[in-house]
Design goal:
Among the domains are: 70 residues, Signal transduction histidine kinase, dimerisation/phosphotransfer (DHp) domain (Helix Hairpins), CATH 1.10.287.130; 166 residues, Histidine kinase-like ATPase, C-terminal domain (Heat Shock Protein 90). It is α+β, with helices and mostly antiparallel strands and 434 residues long. The strands form four sheets. The protein has a five-stranded antiparallel sheet, sandwiched between helices. It has a five-stranded mixed sheet with strand order 8-10-11-13-12.
């Protein structure tokens, strides 16, 4: 129980941290990519508006004051990013088409990787695509309509693409390293984080154990005194009631102690291969007389030849709890179905018990909590609906000990409990602690 709580804490923190890091790293990279693309588009737009030429940046030397004249050919949003070296760092080429669609001018003077023939090939491909902005190979292009035709400007974006990839790789590596280090720290300090819950659970467990042993002594005395009373006088309805209540309380104490040991992992289960079909058929069949007494029909559908590696005593207890629960809460003159079969993948075994109930439980998730009873259908009503309210908690503990899962589903007035075991994980063992 404690280790499971610690694992859940670590898992929750790890998942939350992963989500946060993915959002942060993803957001940073998206912002970086959009910023680089926007800068490239601004350069393309500037060259396009300047008729395929890079705008002049007024030079100055160290002995003179910087030229303060307004540069009307440079957009205001680019002035902070432009300097004397920008035009020499930018690699681009242009292709102009006349009004008839023929190539009129090819300018490859600002790039060494492309000749005129290749530039025309790129331009024709762009024109035929019908797009005005996009990417082709390692170039970003922009098509502008001019009074005498079209101008296609290509900007070499290899440097920008490399920056994007480098930034993404570095950010992912840093995030991964931070994630691993943080997870290791969480694992190291997780026990300290769940210590209050551990202490509370330990106190609860000690209380149940101590109270259980303390209650056994007065129960034994009451039982002995009842026997003396019946020996000295005739048995009566009062002594019979005392015996029934002593038996009931003794059973409750035993099941509470068993459940506490199961949840803590103090119970040793002996895993062996046994015939699950025969065990379910035998346990379910033993409830037929009780079902007839309650005017119920017990229908048993068990697939033959199903064997699993597990604790036979615990699985029999699980089956008994589910069938007894159905017999207790089923309406009169209805049918109870007990089914055991493999799933379609043959990797799981499902044991399901269903019954009809006019007032089915509302919150099925809470049915497996200790002492939980639904206000309507789970309340005690005479001898038919007895029990202690911890049977389903024991059923869940047994199922989880076998690496399985138990659930309750309500469809109309039909209540179905299903215990599912993953047979591939039920490895044969001599002794396994839960």
């Amino acid at each position: 129980m404690i280790k499971r709580l610690q694992r859940k804490f670590v898992l929750i923190v790890a998942v939350c941290l992963l989500v946060v890091e993915v959002l942060i790293i993803g957001g940073i990279n998206i912002f970086n990519i959009r910023s680089i693309n926007a800068e490239q588009d601004n350069i393309l737009q500037t060259i396009t508006e300047n008729d395929g030429k890079f705008p002049d940046f007024f030079r100055h030397d160290d002995k003179l004051k910087p030229d303060r004249r307004e540069q009307t050919d440079i957009p205001p949003k680019l002035k902070n990013n432009f300097n004397e070296e920008t035009r020499y760092q930018t690699r681009f080429f242009t292709v102009s088409f006349d009004s008839s669609g023929e190539v009129s001018v090819v300018n490859t003077g600002q790039i060494a990787a492309v000749d005129s023939e290749k530039a025309v090939e790129y331009a024709n491909e762009v024109i035929n695509s019908g797009k005005t902005v996009g990417n082709i190979d390692c170039y970003r292009y922009r098509v502008a309509e001019k009074s005498d035709g079209k101008l296609v400007v290509f900007l070499d974006v290899r440097s920008g693409n490399n920056n994007k990839s480098r930034f993404m790789l570095i950010s992912v590596l840093v995030a991964a390293a931070g994630y691993v280090i943080t997870c290791l720290l969480v694992i190291v300090f997780s026990k300290r984080a769940v210590r209050p819950a551990i202490e509370s659970f330990e106190k609860q467990r000690r209380f149940i154990t101590d109270a259980g042993h303390e209650i056994k002594t007065p129960l034994a005395i009451i039982s002995a005194n009842t026997e003396v009373i019946e020996m000295t006088s005739e048995p009566s309805e009062w002594t019979s009631s005392i015996r029934n209540q002593v038996t009931r309380l003794d059973g409750l104490v035993r099941e509470l102690l068993d459940l506490s040991k199961m949840e803590e992992g103090d119970v040793k289960l002996v895993f062996t291969e046994f015939d699950l079909s025969a065990a379910v058929r035998e346990i379910a069949g033993s409830f037929e007389p009780l079902a007839k007494t309650n005017r119920e029909t017990l229908e048993i559908e068990v697939h033959d030849g199903i064997t699993i590696n597990g604790d036979e005593r615990a699985i029999r207890k699980l089956t008994s709890i589910l069938v007894e629960n159905a017999v207790k809460y089923a309406d009169d003159d209805t049918q109870i179905n007990v089914k055991l079969d493999r799933t379609s993948s043959a990797r799981h075994v499902e044991l399901s018990v269903s019954n009809v109930c006019q007032q089915p439980p509302k919150d099925t998730d809470k049915l497996f909590d200790r002492f939980y009873r639904d206000d309507a259908s789970r309340s005690r009503d005479g001898e038919k609906v007895g029990g202690y309210g911890i049977g389903l908690s024991i059923a869940r503990a047994v199922t989880e000990a076998h690496k399985g899962r138990i659930s309750c589903a309500v469809s109309g007035d039909l209540v179905t409990f299903t215990a599912r075991f993953r047979t591939s994980r039920l490895k044969e063992k001599k002794q396994t602690q839960i």
